[in-house]
Amino acid sequence: MSTPSPHCALCGIALGERLCRDSEGKSPAFCPTQNFSEVKEENSALYEGETKRFAKNAAIQEASCYEGREQGYAHLRPAKPRIEEIIEFAQKMGYQKLGLAFCMGLRNEAKAVELLLQKRGFEVVSVICKVGNSDKSTLGIDEEDKLIPHTPEAMCDPLLQARLLNESQTDFNIMLGLCVGHDSLFLKASEALCTVFAVKDRLLGHNPLAAIYTLESYYRSLKEG
Asked: According to the model, what pLDDT value does residue 2 have?
């Protein structure tokens, strides 16, 4: 019998009683902590050198984002917004030059972010999604698939965004509002490790979880396909 694929999102065990949190905890049949111990051991070898330092600082940063830690888990309360987390993490890593890959639709937010990062002592290289002004027709799409058919329309070029940041030798790249798919290509091409400041959700003001929070009410139609 083959080992079940993980479905951690569907685990019904109370958080504090799960095997992934407590070595004496419980686990469902699909639990990867229970079923993939050999893979875990192999994976441990990946945490060496710079990767280990990166992961260590990420863990330190996570803890620093809560107050009330000395009183126990039930008393934890968030203390920092994500932009502050990004700044502090970059400082912990000793990064000097940050890349900012952003969507044209969030150009005002990108300007505010770049100025803030500069004020905090970083050198910033920012590249907009439409860089290069290559027409969407080069992708082989039909005119009807453009926003405004039969007019010149620049494509988003995440590969060029990544390449320009690569050539600038950025230490760490920040993604701001790249489209679904474009973000994937950027992550694939970026030589520096990346973090996401905000994702694009045109309808929900870049708060995509709003559709999940209202899945049983306003967005119940999503379940019907």
From this structure: 86
Question: Average pLDDT per run of 10 along the chain, which is 225 residues long?
Answer: 92 95 95 95 96 98 95 92 98 98 98 98 98 95 93 96 98 98 98 98 96 96 91
pTM of the predicted model, to two decimals?
A: 0.94
Cβ 213 vs Cβ 188: under 8 Å: no
Q: What is the 3-state secondary structure (H, E, C) of the chain?
A: CCCCCCCHHHCCCCHHHECCCCCCCECCCCCHHHHCHHHHHHHHCCCCHHHHHHHHHHHHHHHHCEECHHHCHHHCEECCCHHHHHHHHHHHHCCCEEEEEECHHHHHHHHHHHHHHHHCCCEEEEEECCCCCCEHHHHCCCHHHCCCCCCCCECCCHHHHHHHHHHCCCCEEEEECCCCCHHHHHHHHCCCCEEEEECCCCCCCCCCHHHHHCCCCCCHHHHHC
Q: Name the token pair of 119.
A: 């004020």
Burial of 88 (0-12, 13-18, 19+ CB in 10 A): middle
